[in-house]
Design goal:
The chain is of the alpha/beta class. Helix content is 38%, strand content 11%. It is built from 12 helices and 9 strands. Helix 4 links the parallel strand 2 and strand 3. Helix 3 packs parallel to helix 12, helix 10 runs parallel beside helix 11 and helix 11 runs parallel beside helix 12. The longest helix has 24 residues. It is globular and about 60 Å long. The protein starts with a helix and ends with a helix. It binds zinc ion (ZN). Zinc ion (ZN) binds next to helix 7.
């Protein structure tokens, strides 16, 4: 029997155990330990194609055993198509990084973040042209986000408002990405360090008596760092009130562990009032082996309330099919409620087959 044929026969249940002898040894061992039941998703960032081409993608996602998708836009179209496959849709919303928002850039450049050299992220974005970021301290910028969330909340079929890029720009990039930009970030450099706009400087000075622009070692200043964590946390928790008042759920994609998130992007997500968190535990970005995914999930869980579900984000283009299966196991054994694939188009049929063999569904 060829593998594809028996996987079809295997389905996603435990009925396949008797066939385990025909599997590669590592995959067979994974089949022997189901002690949980997961909900699993995929982020969907590629919206190209005809309806029928998108249906083909959704069919692969459904057949693999996933529960839903998180599209980055075109929510109504994805809802219409996903309904045919009984897949949930969560509205992935790129929040503070507004590089694609021409209206905002042209009309309110003063709402954007400023680095420690005094350069606006509109005029001199870090790393890539789209790294133009709204400052979370400015009330007008906050209101702009609330209005965007209101638009999403009008779509009753969505299962959550899913925040992403809800942080500061990377003051330090993940180690794997630094050579891409020809830089070595052995410490915090001012051109990547945000936000030193007038609103932030004034607010910090009022609260703590110092101008952050004049701090000697701003990266080692616990009060200044905490101030920045708190600005994003305050915004998220305001959005949480807004979303919960409408009977909807709030989720977010975040950096992989609480420590990495605070250090690289000043994101203290364990303090956010989320219904579920989706840490992007992209092991290759940090030069880590697949086993690290389990350690990272455990660290995330240690800071989270027991009531907050964690869905482990996996960056699949650099993973082998067996590694995707192993990542699922490591995540689930350490307290994840499921995994979230990025991107769905990075999965070969073999990747889907291995994941579907490994997943334990309720
Ligand atoms: Zn600012």
């Amino acid at each position: 029997m060829n593998r594809k044929h028996f996987i079809k026969k295997l389905g996603t249940g435990a009925a396949g155990l008797s066939l385990a002898g025909t599997l590669p040894a590592a995959a067979a061992s994974l089949l022997n330990t189901p002690k949980y039941s997961s909900l699993d998703y995929t982020w969907v960032s590629d919206h190209n194609g005809t309806d029928d081409e998108l249906r083909e993608r959704l069919e692969r996602i459904k057949k693999a055993g996933l529960n839903g998708i998180l599209p980055s836009g075109n929510y109504e179209k994805w809802i219409r198509l996903a309904e045919e496959f009984e897949l949930d849709v969560h509205a992935w919303f790129v929040t503070l990084q507004r590089g694609g928002d021409q209206w905002l850039i042209e009309n309110h450049p003063e709402w954007f973040m400023v680095n420690r050299l005094g350069e606006s992220s509109v005029d001199k974005p870090a790393y890539v042209d789209y790294y133009k970021w709204l400052c979370p301290v400015r009330p007008e910028a906050q209101q702009y986000i609330f209005d965007k969330v209101d638009e999403i909340l009008k779509i009753s079929e969505i299962k959550s408002v899913h925040l992403d890029y809800i942080r500061y720009p990377d003051v330090i990039l993940p180690i794997q990405l630094q050579p891409t930009y020809g830089i070595v970030q052995d410490k915090e450099y001012p051109q990547y360090d945000y936000c030193y706009c007038d609103a932030c400087r004034t607010k910090f000075k009022e609260l703590h008596g110092e101008d952050p622009m004049e701090l000697q070692n701003p990266g080692d200043h616990p009060v200044w760092n905490q101030f920045r964590y708190d600005q994003v946390t305050h915004l998220v928790n305001q959005v949480a009130i807004q979303v919960h008042n409408r009977g909807q759920r709030l989720t977010a994609a975040v950096f992989p562990t609480p420590t990495i998130a605070r250090t690289l992007v000043r994101q203290n997500w364990a303090a956010w009032n989320l219904d579920a968190v989706f840490p992007m535990i992209y092991n290759h970005f940090y030069h880590k082996p697949v086993q690290w995914i389990g350690e990272a999930v455990a660290e995330c869980r240690s800071e989270l309330p027991a009531t907050t579900d964690l869905f482990c984000g996996l960056y699949v283009p650099e993973m082998t099919p067996i590694e995707v299966s192993q990542a699922y196991e490591y995540a689930m054994k350490n307290g994840a409620a499921g995994v979230t694939i990025f991107p769905d188009t990075g999965m070969s049929q073999e990747h889907w087959d291995y994941l579907s063999m490994t997943m334990v569904k309720g």
